[in-house]
Write a structure and sequence with these properties.
It is a single chain. The chain is an alpha+beta fold. 49% of the residues lie in helices and 13% in strands. The mean pLDDT is 94.
Length: 582
Amino acid sequence: MEFKYNMSLAELRKRTSKTYYRKLEFLSPESREVKKLFARDKLVLLHLVKAAKIVDKIQLQLENAHNLELLEFLDKEIKEGNEKAERTKKMFMSQKSIFSPDTLGNQTVLVKGVERKLGQNYFPEDLEVEEFHEILNRMLDDGDIEELKKILNQRTIVRRDGDKLKAIDFVDAFPEFREVAKELELAKEYSTDKKFNKYLELQIKALEKADPMLDAKADKVWAELDGRHKFEFTLTRECYQENLTKTIFDNEALAKRLEEAGVTVYAKDSLGARVGLVNKKGTKLLNKLKELVNVSAKYMPYQNEYENKKSDSDVKQIAVDVDLITVTGDEGAYKASFVTAQNLPNSDKLAFSIGGGNRNVYHRQVRKPGKKKNYRKLLCEEQWEFYNPEADHWAVICHENTHSLGPQSKTLGKYSSILEEYKADMGMYAFLDEFIQEGFFNDFETKQIMVTGLFRCFMKGKPTLEQAHKTRALMICYRMIEEGGIVLDKDTKLHFDFDKIKKLTKTMLAEVVRLQIDGDVKKAKAYIDKWCVWSNEIERIAEVIRGYNKTLNGYVEEKFADLLLESGYEKELLQQLKTETN
């Protein structure tokens, strides 16, 4: 395919400049955490990083059929001294795609002539919604139920088979998974952590054979790795990006036929990988606040209408704080921001059916606080004392806990992720009085959670519905201003009414849980349409933010990971290992 650059050189220079291109720094060879490592530890991490980089290549293929071809084109152009190619590749490697929203909510398109597809490369490039639904109906007519279950599964790519479709499991579709398995096997040879090695062993088996139960067994052990384990390695699987499957829920007749046939509809998983070191100090704080989930569980609304979890033993939730070395694939894509924490495996995964739990991983390098002078430009002077970046971390803990609670609706299509994130945010604020009663926070600290958490919801550009996290943030901001939880004065200063916020968030939590229980797509759409509004007040706030935050895109600097991959470094580590052993 012939590629043509979509951006001028001036625009590319702007977007990759220090002002507009945010840098996130992961662990470097000079980091205190790295200097403590022995050669054996570094050899483990070397192979984990290699495995993660292979996952990057797999996800690039899933995301778009032309990604790898584009990379080849750019590398060739760079060798010929083309600055456009060099800067386009920088953008591409940070967003892991030809397409990605920037922080203003605008779609970044790197090259011309490539169309953004709802089904990405999980489905045939020429398959549109109407034909997709027609084929599914035809296969239902012909009784192809087992194949439909595979086609509408999280872990398959789909290709044409005559006038029908066929599914290919990820493991069979991508031989690169065998390469990932080999690297994990080598990491396991150097690791002395028995439980971590057990996880690696199960994950290796899951990468070598197309069997969902093998993934489930690996997920179950991964979710049990707590702060006693040094290494962090995760194969992330989340279904935020692929949208063709989600259109089924807009077709009531088709969705009903599939349900009656016993076919559960799942959007496709995007794949990523994370490598890091568990931070014991940060994990201690998480363990201290671990029982917050028990408080939230007791007060979740409509508990008699879904399987309720009332204790930590029911929730089965581990939390660890991690210093990051590398993130790859969808995990490492800068789509207007980086995620600060993840609660995995998601509720659609098979691990739960065999008694598995959740594991929350918090990203220390991502949650670095912004400049204090900036928040003063929006926050009223009398509430400055309540802005505390550490309180935002407490809020995120409550958010991630709430993902493990309440109903887990899978029938709301493209609205499922938005409402799930919305529900999780409500869990940050709705039970603050109860947290005080149980002795976890004092009144001052809960005010810090409200001010800091809600303040950070405001953004500088209107998001699209595909940006679940940012859409839910806009809904919250608009609702708070509309109903007086937050007041914007004539000087564009924010004033927080704490009593109203706590009362309002209880109402909002009950509303979203009700929507998840009912599973009605039309009601979900109407609710989001009602509150996802870019109002004049929101625009006034955004204008202030745009004044002090120019970032449009971002990237990760991972110097330690780069060192691990340098030619000859493994040989150097093996020599050091001999010395340490002797």
